[in-house]
Amino acid sequence: GLAIMITDVKMDYNHDDDLEFFKANQDDLVKKYNGKQLVIRECDVIAAFDSVGEAFDYGCKNYGAGNFSIQHCIAGEGAYTCKISTVYSFLCL
């Protein structure tokens, strides 16, 4: 998984609802969009792209940074969980 940190943006958008939407519909979404990066807004798939960069650019252009979610559409919990080692965390600082 990938987390994108955006600074200097008012973050009032509820990303938790989008994640719950994805989890509840994951099987059907994977059948339709397997491997794509989904732009999700207000519990609806707005667009699907091959890369996170394309999805992020589209979301920012159309909704503003922080007002949409990006979800990698793959099967299993790995789609929405991320394990980061302490070594990686240190390197990210």
Structure commentary:
By secondary structure, this protein is an alpha+beta fold. The chain has one domain (15-92). It is 41% helix and 14% strand. It has three helices and three strands. It has helices at 15-33, 52-63, 86-92; strands spanning 37-40, 45-49, 69-72. It has a three-stranded antiparallel sheet. The longest helix is centred in the first third of the chain and has 19 residues, at 15-33. It starts with 14 loop residues before the first helix and ends with a helix. Residues 88-93 have low confidence and may be disordered.
Question: Could you write a compact summary of the structure shown?
Answer:
With 93 residues, the protein is of the alpha+beta class. The chain has 3 helices and 3 strands.
List keywords for this structure.
three-stranded antiparallel beta sheet, disordered C terminus, 3 helices, 93 residues, 3 strands, alpha+beta
List strands and helices in order, with pairings:
Layout: H1 15-33, E1 37-40, E2 45-49, H2 52-63, E3 69-72, H3 86-92
Antiparallel strand pairs: 1-2, 1-3
**SS element count, helices:** 3
Termini separation (Å)? 18 Å
Task: Return the string of H and E elements.
Answer: HEEHEH
Average pLDDT number? 84
The 3D shape can be described as: globular
Q: What composes the largest sheet?
A: 3 strands, antiparallel
The value of Rg in angstroms is: 13 Å
Strands of the largest sheet, in order across it?
Answer: 2-1-3
